Amino acid sequence: MSLFLGIDGGGTGCRAVLADAQGRQLGLGAAGPANISIETESACANIVAAARAALDQAGRGNLDELTAVLGLAGANVTASARRLQAMLPFRHTRIVTDAVTAAAGALQGTDGIVAAMGTGSVFAVRIGDETRQYGGRGFLLGDEGSGAVLGRALLTEALRAEDGFAPMTPLLRDVLRELGGIEGVISFGLHAKPSEFGIFAPRIVTSGDPAAERIFAAATDQIREMIEVLQQGRDLPVVFLGGLGAHYARRLAGLWDIRPAQGSGLDGALFLALREGV
Amino acid sequence: MSLFLGIDGGGTGCRAVLADAQGRQLGLGAAGPANISIETESACANIVAAARAALDQAGRGNLDELTAVLGLAGANVTASARRLQAMLPFRHTRIVTDAVTAAAGALQGTDGIVAAMGTGSVFAVRIGDETRQYGGRGFLLGDEGSGAVLGRALLTEALRAEDGFAPMTPLLRDVLRELGGIEGVISFGLHAKPSEFGIFAPRIVTSGDPAAERIFAAATDQIREMIEVLQQGRDLPVVFLGGLGAHYARRLAGLWDIRPAQGSGLDGALFLALREGV
């Protein structure tokens, strides 16, 4: 009997779902991070651990019988994806980016655009069985409108305000106080990971502070322009995912056919695994 | 007899100049990097080595007789500056940022604004004997218009162009080819130091490429606005320093009284040391 495995892996953890050929769920598993561009070996170990846990829960099957689709952060670095592919024990393995599985899960069979707005950001356009990723180029050079990029913009604005280059606002004053003034902000910026910059994002999208509002309005404009480019004059449905997704959806309501997600990235990985055939 | 020491230190090296109370130069010295916010101990060792070399060349004097002013990158992190101050062997030590000594050197006795546009960027306003630094908050959160920030903007634009979010241009195509496509650009961005991003700056300010022109025009606007804030309606002379200084000076010619620098940051450190008195 054929068994199908979906894996959803990223910087914080990886999850596995096992199903039969009819898509009936047989087991779930979870393990540590699986960002393959940073640590391929430990990503591989965690993926296998999550798959084993799903097999254990199902009470049947072996690793080398599985048809697996893995949606992984960092899979756009194809050298790492090739290395991982060679290391994995599954019968058939396909590695795609987490954006591709997120799109498959969110849209299931339909065409559309997915905008995943979390600590990072990435876009995917699904037409027929083809999904193409756009953006998602990382904290320093991309990830437009993401929580980490919004947080960085807030800290930049706080430093500019302290120097008189931008108006001081209550939120900027709070941030400067919380981080210990200019030096504290600089020191935080030297050591913080993207997720730590992202800690400021909820206040940026909800506080109504003038500086936050300016930053979020500029980001919303940028995301609107990017989605317009991806639409290419079409009127594809748009699904916003991630912690900030609902905030962008609210700001951009009415521009396109904005829909809720049909399923998760893990659902999407399994959906694609089932399509890989036996 | 009183001896005065000026030190100019940064991420690539540190230089020392020794003079008598009349400002007559007695000796010069040089040693390795002195960015105190990163490595205070080795910065201290290099500063002392540069000072010893200047004393050797002069053929007289001891470290504990010197009245020293040190202009150092990273001196705005005052905890590091305090630690260094306690470690140094000079009779009298004053630590200021390299922006303060650059301003003192560039303007000598006169009031004015200094805009140092190199790999990083920083501004200083000198009025009477008071010099205040603005900006210079580092690659990630500040350094507006700097070579590193321009380079990062070029790479961001190259990734956006490859995704169709921005127009492709000859320079963007060259950069993508040189770095190995999207993946190469992302990988470069993950590991490159600010100085490595800055390698692209000369092409941005001279190529005439449409993308480069857009990036440099936006940076020039930003620098113009910042200098207007610093002018506060006054008409202070403006000195542009650093590898990109001449390019900004040319773009902004006619807006203010733009002047060449009177002297270097090392000259400025000695100028300030002589003012410290005996």
UniProtKB/TrEMBL annotation, chains A, B:
Ranges of residues in domain ATPase BadF/BadG/BcrA/BcrD type:
5-244
InterPro entries, per the entry: ATPase_BadF, ATPase_NBD, Euk-type_GlcNAc_Kinase
- Domain of life, per lineage: Bacteria
Give coiled-coil spans as residue ranges: none
Q: What is this protein called?
A: BadF/BadG/BcrA/BcrD ATPase family protein
Native organism: Paracoccus mangrovi
